[in-house]
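Q: I'm a student working through a structural biology exercise. My instructor gave each of us a protein and asked us to get a predicted structure, then write a short paragraph describing it. Mine is Netrin receptor UNC5A-D-like N-terminal domain-containing protein. I'm not confident about reading structure output yet, so if you can add a plain explanation after the tokens, that would really help. Here is the sequence I was given:
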Amino acid sequence: MEDPLHPPTIATGEGDQNSVPLPVFLEEPTYAFVVKNKPATLKCRAAHALEIYFKCNGVRKSPEQQMEFVEPQTGVRNVEASVSVTRNELDEFFEKDKFRCECYAWSSSGQIKSQPAVVEVACEYRCFYLGVGFRREGPRGRRFLQSFGRPLRRASYVNTDYSGTGRIPFEI
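A: Happy to help. First, here is the predicted structure for Netrin receptor UNC5A-D-like N-terminal domain-containing protein. I'll explain a few features afterward.
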């Protein structure tokens, strides 16, 4: 069963029986957040690759750190790279879609592209508008608001029946 939100990795190039195999991702970049002024770090690792680079919103971005090593038991060449995305880069991005970065692994037989990783600014804000859909009556007639923010917090409370992820109600 294929996940429509996460399509399979796309490979380009011709795989020949006698040639070097296409690169294989061992680690792909994942969804990340910029917290305050700490940049988000995206990591990528591939086997059989000669070079790894990132593309963020179609613009090539060279990795800040790149390590290359050969596994002694198998003789397979592995390349590992990471890139940082700063808050300034996110603030300068004015498109309708979210800020996305993809990892490309290249070898003489072709290149492969990873799944896109979304990078967002982590924030927590509360909506104090008590209009329709925001108000909820709690015990003893108290009003509750929903806490909005990214990423969604995970919480569990002792001596209550609320547990799980999502928006956590708080009392005003």
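A: Here are two points you could use in your paragraph. The longest strand covers residues 77-85. The domain at 10-121 is CATH 2.60.40.10 (Immunoglobulin-like). It's a good idea to check both against the output above yourself.
Q: Great, thank you!
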